[in-house]
Amino acid sequence: MQIDDSHFQLRLAASAQDLHAAQRLRYAVFVDELGADGPMVDHVARREVDRFDAFFDHLLLIDRRKPEDQSVVGVYRVMTQSGAAAAGQFYSEQEYDLGPLRRSGRRLLELGRSCLHRDYRGGTAMMHLWAGLADYIAAHRIEVMFGVASFQGLDPAPLAGPLSLLHHRHLAPPELRPVARSAGFQRMDLIAQSELDRPTAIREIPALIKAYLRLGGFVGQGAYCDRAFNCIDVCLVMDVARIPDKARAIYQRGGAT
User: What parts of the chain have a pLDDT lower than 50?
Assistant: First the structure.
């Protein structure tokens, strides 16, 4: 059966109203659902904001069937090197030393704040966001993508399996390996590889991180405890040239109009 999802529109934010809609969805997901907080969270307007928003492009997934003020159902923010230069740094540099990536001389793109409204998870919505991201990568001739992705909670003990699996099996090559900053550094090699229950560890990895791994993604050295967002972050790195052809075909398929 063919799924009719022509009601979706995918585009970049083009106004303050668009940005505010993205920030409201981020509030619903990161604050209401996951317990994030901090000085930049606007509880009155119910928007999750930070100073970097002005320097990112914001990819919006819009459901045309919904009222305009509720129509943004998926967001992704992306920042090129020119955006980082204007901001003074990449967002991820608050948590990770990105020296190896910067010294690589390759065209970089930072990904972040990916989220979907709870009613759109498990369907085709994420594939539309991936397709839009693929178009953006092609248009800007991006060579390496990176960004932080999260495990919920700040206690590393329940996460020992998945963190150890990422360290042992998916560590980035030295020339593309960010390192977590000492202020929030959390070791990832908590269980020896020989003692790791790999099937269980895989099941415990969040879906978004597994999606990046299927695209050939790696992780940086060490995790980072992000107390404002009540999570433990890993830095994911994807070399566009190394994305498997099969995976590339999946995420490039069927972009919304």
Answer: 1-3, 254-257
